[in-house]
Here is the input.
Amino acid sequence: MKYTIFKAAIAAIALGFTISGCNSPKAKGTGEMSSEAVTGEEVAVLTDAPNVPPPITRKHPTKVMVNLEVIEKEMEMMDGVKYIFWTFGGSVPGKFIRVREGDLVDFTLLNMPDNKLPHNIDLHAVNGPGGGAEATMVAPGQSGHFQFKALNPGLYVYHCATGPVGMHIANGMYGLILVEPQAGMSKVDREFYIMQGDFYTKGKFGEKGLQEFDMDKAIKEDADYVVFNGKVNANAGPNAMKAKVNETVRLYVGNGGPNLASSFHVIGEIFDKVYVEGGDMVNKNVQTTVVPPGGATIIDMKMNVPGTYHIVDHAIFRTFHKGTLAQIKVEGDEAPNIYAKIKK
Amino acid sequence: MKHRTFTQKSKNNRHTATGSRCPLRLKYMKYLFCYGVLFFFPFLVRAQETAHMSIGEKRMLPIKEGLYKSFFNTGNGKPVKVKKFHLDEYAVTNEEYLEFVKANPQWRKSRVNRLFADTNYLRHWESDLSIGEKNREIYRSPVVYVSWFAAKAYCAWKQKRLPTVAEWELAANAPPKNQKYGTLTEYILNWYKKPNPAVLPAVKSTYCNTNGLYDMHGLVWEWVFDFNSYIRGGDSRAKGNEDKNLFCAASSLDVKDRTDYAAFLRFGYRGSLKGNYCIANLGFRCAKD
Here is the structure.
């Protein structure tokens, strides 16, 4: 009897802690969230890079159903170079997920029946043990299901956290989830999704055929490929992203790693705004911003002058020898007052 | 596959034999040969019978007692002593499993208790008692889409049992007989990475190890008796003691010790299972003391 009372007391204290604990994440967000009730239900629009789902126009939180499939499949890492990728949704990086602060996210991870291995997902946007990893650890053919409240606005990485984690990530298991703040985001003309990743293969960079994952190199952090959006030239040349002069472009940039930090830079542009580390703090007039593995950042830049803009990791050997290059082609009238080539 | 090439060869031989004109003496030889065949006929039949028997009563190979050093620290961290035991030379096939289902109606697709096998149970079979004519190619392939409960029941029906993790791992650690692959670990890792083939190959289609066991890696995952006794959490990183083992193991993996890397994936796989799961690439083989 005494013991029961004692237990009850402990429970009450613990509950007190939990309640007070709830306040802290709210303080991190824009606040006021608790006053909004979750109403309705919708299925999340998911997109492959470089596309981003449309901005959220809703003014209230809702229940958002996210259904993501884990697919192990052979794809090209470069023209003629094949690799067996493990993916969230069939491509690398995984599907872009967009929700609003305060939303109740109902998440289902399906591990496709023909996959060989168990997988799970750790979303950095989750407040809870393992970021969902424990709840979604699933064998092939099974699905894992959990819910989380999107308490903190920002841009977050998600990735597979099944052991050996490094190998799962090195095979392409990462993507981004954006939690839009309640107040919404400033309007821009175009939005793109870019995610960097490093890959380790038995053959050297460019060696044709099916390439195997090389664990020795992964441990030594000696990458053969460092690429944007899962493939050399995924968004360069004919696949370059497009914009028009005087448009503001927003880049949602993530880094899956597993090992290498990105010195993210756009040649010929200055970032007007950088949402540092994908959070609330905005830095202005930035040339190069660091995106660490497992981290993300949001960049706004106005394209003043037409031409092709090269997106690189300014650890520049990676661009010339390992593949970190993407392009934005900007069309429109010349702006000689801003930039002019002087003929002799 | 091997079998097919063999029959093809003998056909060719016959063709050349009839095509060539033999001298008289050889003709008598022919008679001699024919009588010879008659003489040996009873023996041939018996040989055929035993060949047939070997499908039903497949060989069980002795595995010497040994120490299995667990991938995870279990208990006091000392290696597990594994007593001498016997293990099926190859995984239970669809054909073999059909016999079990015929003899045990409670394990038919339509009757199985959902607590013991999920809705995927034998989903690749045409019906309760037929694998299906269109699935002819997989008659001799390992049976998959079977639960742990089903595997256990099958082995009991055969007066056998499922091997333990320690037994299975000890038996499977033996290297391939003919070293076709760089290392066994590399071979295993490559197999782990690849999605399932459209048609699951037959048993004995991969390698034979020095214990005489076929396909311990490279064909299907296999149920073991205590599959869930190592990892309980779904998160492989630090959280709770059992997970910490996994986490520590991860950090202790160095380049020299890559066998453990494959084991890491294997233990992760086992950790994701529940007893009633029926999965496309998960079969089993039986053990006996």
In short: The first strand of chain A starts at residue 41 and ends at 43. Residues 14-32 of chain A have pLDDT under 50 and may be disordered. The CA atoms of residues 7 and 76 of chain A lie 59 Å apart. The interface with chain B takes residues 72-73, 84, 113-118, 120, 122, 129-130, 133-142, 144, 161-167, 171, 212-213, 215-216, 219 of chain A (CB under 8 Å).
